[in-house]
Amino acid sequence: MTTEFETEIVKTKEFNKIFMIVFLILYAISGFYIFMYDKESQNVYLKYLALTIYLSGIYFIFGQSFMKPKKLGKLKISTDRIEFNVGNNNKIIPLNELENIYLKYMDYGSWSTHSIFGNKNYLRITEKSGKKYDFEILIRNKNSKNHLKIIFNSPEFYEKFDYMKNGNSRTEF
After folding, report:
1. Three-class DSSP category at 8
2. 6, β-bridge pairs
3. By the 8 A CB rule, do 134 and 72 touch?
4. pLDDT tens digits for range 109-164
5. For labeling, which of 23, 26, 50, 172 is most exposed (least CB within 10 Å)?
6. DSSP reduced 3-state for 25
């Protein structure tokens, strides 16, 4: 019996670090201006500007988990082969041609993990020929994680699979 796990290969939008630092400084200043600065001497225009910056900061803090990552393709892992389709590249790797498979596990998607679509989980597949494939995949929920875990703990993958749990992860793999 072949067990199959299917998920999406995605690319999560990342923000420029300089933009994030500048925005964080503006967010702190606006929070101070709105809540701590003397209300009697506040400029009305600066107050509305600070409120706009503060509200947009709340969107970036809490709204990011509601943005769906860009889908690049599909990944299917079964106990006899690995298939992926990225753009026009369709590849099937039988397990006898697989050198190893490495998962950098962050977490699965849920309300408690602050991401409803799934967190950044990275999968590196290496063929015996030396060709490597790096993917960012979604693990949507706990059932999906358990399904993937069953496949990777099967005798076919036992010697070829390894994973690393990121320190920010709230759940075990």
Report:
1. strand
2. 76
3. no
4. 654 555 566 667 888 999 999 899 998 888 888 888 888 888 888 888 777 887 77
5. 172
6. helix
- Copy the structure tokens of residue 120: 């950044």
With H, G, I as helix, E, B as strand and everything else as coil, classify residue 42: coil
Round to whole Å and give the CA distance between 146 and 152. Answer: 10
d(CA 50, CA 32): 9
Q: Is the pTM of this model over 0.85?
A: no
* Higher pLDDT, residue 31 or 116: 31
Rounded Cα–Cα distance for residues 29 and 169 (Å): 31
C-beta of residue 42 within 8 angstroms of C-beta of residue 50:
no
DSSP 69: P
| Helix then strand then coil, % of the chain, to nearest 5 | 35, 35, 35
